[in-house]
Every structure is written in structure tokens, then in C-alpha cells.
Amino acid sequence: MELIGSALKLNQSVVQYYKKNGLRLQMAFALQNLATCQEQLWIQDGRSPTWKNFISAMRSCESAARAFNIGRYSDNLRRNTRIRLKLWLSGYRAKVQLPTGYLSSAVAWLLLLFGFNYNKPSVLQEVEKCLKSLESMVDAQRHDLSALHNEQALLAKQSLRSNDDALAILDVSITVYGTENDIQSVWNTIQKSKARSVSDLLGLGVNIPQWLQNAIDTDSEAKILFQQETGYMVKIENDSTDNQFQLRKDLDIHRRAMRRVPCLQHLLELREGRPVSASKLRAIRDVQNAYGNSRQIFFADWLIYSGKVWLMVVTPNSTLLYDTGILAKDLTRG
């Protein structure tokens, strides 16, 4: 405990030194080190739900995120987001209570983007915000790689299946939504993960189905927007200045315009690996009934959670979760 306390004081001094000298990037890394010390003090205290060191650690992490964002260090911001996600998950497991009026400083700028409500702040809300932020960063990488249309981009997209960020999103989502007994969100998480894995494995977006390529080529607006997106990516790849940040903002705006064209919307969904929603699955039953077929249709999938194998079933009215009684460790036997 004494050693951690000494490291805490040292990092506080380092943060102030870098701040005073205008060294934003170095200050951000020092803030993350400071957060690690504060987290360790919280752990030493038995992960108390009310202990101030958890809140201090989060504020340090979020201050680092803000510095990375202002300094346009997107890769570092993404790593920081994963660090914050794991720390918020620890707080969620420990049932940490946020003080009244707590507002996540580093992600305040996401309010307008994602429309979150801070009237009743909770650790669960903070976990979900980090999940959304990290998901959007990984999806942006999927689009970027797909737009380059070369072998290197294809291999990089395929490697996203085992990307640390993608795995963290899956892990945390199942843990949190399973604990909350939010079965529909567990189903959505599993389907998104599998759809993204298929998209990444097949390099969808880098490899475009011929029928979709034909649809783009025969639509003059779609063709121009598609070519312009490639142009943006080439500029970003070749630019090592601060202008790259503005180019990325322009590219995000451009992709919003692409979503308004049906064939390009389909292309973007292929890149992201967007699954069929539960409501659309249920609509299949309605179509069957309309033609006089009264058969009941159910959709099933499985997952491993808390060391057990669980069965999920989408019924006409709800999504259910069943304990199969099978332990995950038994799946590797014989």
C-alpha cells in the first residue's frame, strides 16, 4: 500500500509537470498511469462500492481520453476507451455507486452523438457508453479497411475477428446484459458478433458481391460516392499531418451521405456485419400465417456464460434463455 501511495504522488507530480509545459500526449499517458495507481488503491481497499479511489481512477482515465481526443491521437483514444470499459466493468461488478451529479467528462461530447440521458447516472450507463464508443471505433476501422480494396486490407479485416477490442465488446456485453437478465440484448450481442465474424472472415466490403457491385456501377450517384470514399481513404493513408483528423471527420460525414443510397447502405451493412433483427425474424412467422401456414417458428442459438452452455430461443412473443446443464469445460472432452 505504501509503495502504491508513493507511485501515486509521483504520477501526480508528473501529470502537473507535463500539463505546465503543454506536453498533452505525455500528460495523457501519465494520467493513465495515475489511474492505475488509484485503481490499485481501490482494489487494496477491497473494491468498496463507495470508495473514492475508483471515482478518482475513472476521472483520471477520462481526463486522459479528453487529452487524446483534443490532441487527435485516435489510436491512443481507442486504447484508452478499452481501458475505461474494463474499469467500468470492475465498478459494475463491485456495485459502485456514483456520486450525485457525476458526469463522465471524457465522453460528454458523445451526448449529442448517441443521445444518452444523464438524469440518473449509473455505472451501467457508463459501461454502455464505453461499449457504444468502442463499437463505433471498430466499425470505422472495418469501413476504412474495406474502402482500400487491396490484399493487405483484406488480411487486416480478417484479423479483426481476434481483435482485442472486438473480443472485449463481446465479453463485456454478455457479462453485463446477462447479469441484468436482459435476454434480448444478449441475443443481439451474439448475433452481431457472429455476423461481424462472418463479414470479417469473408472480407465483405473488400470483396463485394458481383450483384451489389453491378448495382453500384449502374447508379450514377452511388458510383460517385463510392469512388469518393476510396479517394478519402487514399488521402488519409498518405497524410501524416494534423489534416488527417479533418479528413476523417469529412469521411464520417461522407459515409452518412452514402447511407441514403440503398445499394451503398447495403454495402455498409455488409462491412459492419449487421445481423437480421429479432423483429424481422418474427415477421417470417407473420408471412407464413398470411399464406395459411400456422406452423410455429422458433429461432435458436447458444452461448457460453459463467462457465455454462445456455440456449437462447426467439419465440413469437419473446426471447428466452435456458440453462442446458452442460458445463463449458465438458465441451473440450473426448
Oligomer status: single chain
State the secondary-structure class.
Answer: mainly alpha
Number of domains: 2
Query: How big a fraction of the residues is strand?
Result: 5-15%
Would you give an account of this structure?
The protein is mainly alpha-helical and 334 residues long. It folds into two domains: 2-202, no CATH class; 277-334, no CATH class. It contains 14 helices and three strands. It has helices at 2-20, 24-44, 52-70, 74-93, 110-114, 123-148, 151-159, 164-179, 183-202, 210-217, 220-238, 243-258, 262-272, 278-290; strands spanning 299-305, 308-314, 319-327. A three-stranded antiparallel sheet has the order 1-2-3. α11 packs antiparallel against α12. The longest helix is centred in the middle third of the chain and has 26 residues, at 123-148. The N and C termini lie far apart (47 Å). The model has no long low-confidence stretch (mean pLDDT 83).
Concise overview:
This protein has 334 residues and is mainly α. The chain has 14 helices and 3 strands. It has a 3-stranded antiparallel β-sheet with strand order 1-2-3.
Draw up the topology in text.
Blueprint: H1 2-20, H2 24-44, H3 52-70, H4 74-93, H5 110-114, H6 123-148, H7 151-159, H8 164-179, H9 183-202, H10 210-217, H11 220-238, H12 243-258, H13 262-272, H14 278-290, E1 299-305, E2 308-314, E3 319-327
Antiparallel strand pairs: 1-2, 2-3
Helix pairs in contact: 1-2, 2-3, 3-4, 4-6, 4-8, 6-7, 6-8, 7-9, 8-9, 11-12
